[in-house]
Amino acid sequence: MAQTFVFIWALIFFTTDRVSSQNLQFSFVGFKHSAPNLTLTGVAAITNNGAIKLTPDTQRVVGHAFYSLPARFKPPGRKRDLSFSTAFAFAVVPEFAKLGGHGFAFAISPSRDLSHSLPSQYLGLLNSSQEASSNHIFAVEFDTVKDFEFRDINDNHVGIDINSMESNISVPAAYFLPNSTEEELSLEGGGVIQAWIDYDSDKGRLDVKLSPSSEKPKLSLLSYEVDLSPILGEEMYVGFSASTGLLASSHYILGWNFNMSGEAMSLPLQSLPRIPLKKKEKKKENVGLILGVSISVSILIISFIAALVFYIVRKKKDEDKIEDWELDIGPHRFSYQELKQATSGFRDKELLGFGGFGKVYRGKLPNSDTPVAVKRISHESKQGVHEFMSEISSIGHLRHRNLVQLLGWCRRHGDLLLVYEFMPNGSLDKYLFDRNPKLVLNWDQRFNIVKGVASGLLYLHEGWEQTVIHRDVKAGNVLLDAEMNARLGDFGLAKLYDRGANPTTTRVVGTLGYLAPELTKSGKPTTSADVFAFGAVLLEMVCGRRPIEAKALPEELVLVDWVWEKWQNGAILEVVDKRMNGEYDESEVVLVLKLGLICSNNSPEVRPTMRQAVRYLEKESPLPDDVPALDSLDSKKRMLLDGDGRSQNIGEFEDFVDSCQLSCGVNEATSTVFSSSSMNNGR
Predict the structure, then answer these.
(1) What is the Cα–Cα distance from 479 to 458, expressed in whole angstroms?
(2) pLDDT tens-digit readout, 439-488
(3) Distance (Å, rounded) from C-alpha 326 to C-alpha 616?
(4) Could you tell me the domains of the chain?
(5) Per annotation, catalytic residue among 147, 472, 481, 490
(6) Among this protein's residues, is 472 annotated catalytic?
């Protein structure tokens, strides 16, 4: 009897989770009865059929699933870390099949608490401030978004990440057939995929394999020589992490084997939980045709009443008229009723700001806690509507951490409504130009914002399949997220309003002080004109004032001229914003001012590209030794100044400023801000 008891105990021990101080081995074929062995955080949960659902297709959420006990990777007396092997099955179902969403990662972490991670492209592992630090995070990412910031190779890849979201090595997702033929594999196609990750510490090699079947391929999709000893601590936690941003996917883990004393067994996919795929929406039946067939067999009076009702419904104020071609336009199309409900009927109480293109309202989408900003644009012209919507679709596909994301749109009669993510900390100009800002930006914050704007502009100019010219780079269009990171807004929209215009007479769009001088001659937007405006942002970031201050001292009217004069006189630090109380990195301040002067040069060929500007700011390349002369005083201003540089008529100069702002098509009121900070300020 005793022998039988010992045998049964041993059988249970070797067929269930087995843990020791130097060995971790477990097997989950589904997770229906495995909750006690797992630690789920964020939105992660176990579904009714036994799958781990790391994230639903909901925006800006994070989910983690870690094995509850740590693995001992460095047992006493052993110099190198232990090897490990794991196999798991997963499925990724995006909210919008054409757009996809951020992926997930198998992770090894010193802690199961990753609450610091951002709900965005960091896959639930890190945040922006951790990117440059040593985090002791190892991950194999299965990513479904091409992120320019992290130098992703495409929007369907597998990568090895060590202490950073920028992969040490990555390859397009694929698998090998038994005959060694490589086949492409869509990570977000909704199908079940099995992954194998094997690390041999003695050989210093990591192998990753994928397959849509239960059979482990002989060839590795990714083989990487790496010593994980500096990364893996004595005890670490193993598990999975995922997050969603503005694009969302449901991430499922269906089964998981892990072994530190040998090769992890492959999972039988036929025995795993099933994931219900989203049913394709059936095309709406032609209500008019059905109604017509129905009333054709009715008496005349019923036909009359039905026609009258149909006419009234069609004339309803909140009607959405959707043409067939609009169904193929991305990004997400909201109904007018959704946006009306989100903004409480477009009440003035929700008004964030207004400008040349329309009003901006704060809102919250129905059945969601996601705050948004809804921009209501009047677009009466019927010419180029298809092209307009096509360009909206293109802009909606732009994704970068330093751009305000366009979430969707709605077209109703002559109105176009654009839905953006909401920026809780408002626009940069409030912190730089208000007399009593709610927060005085320190130098680290300012330098980080400058680099963020540069990164966003570089993406617009070079990081996408088409070149996007912003045309209105300024402090008012730089928005700040919850962590005070810069997000460039209103990109490309001014350009959309030039449909049907003669290129030689295109209206100059922009704001005085940020307009490149060549625009007044040609009216043709260029990337170099964006660089000129970026130069003005650089200078005002250091100086804490606008490019043109009509009420300033005569010699300080034009910011770039004042800074240039101080540069020539060797007194450049006199222009630094006094509100920083002298607490700044002098070398970085000089770097930003010098780059601002070069970007502000009247000659486009002197200005750097945004790629060069980013390299300068990241200190990857030294700036040129000399700063070319600006030659920035235009003839109108020269007429207003006498020989010693003092204005003959300050009032006339103020009128000149106002007239230029209006003639350029944008005055201060057009600095539309998608945030609460612009409430009731006439912006």
Answers:
(1) 17
(2) 899 999 999 999 999 999 999 998 877 788 888 899 988 999 989 999 99
(3) 43
(4) 17-264 (2.60.120.200), 299-421 (3.30.200.20), 428-678 (1.10.510.10)
(5) 472
(6) yes
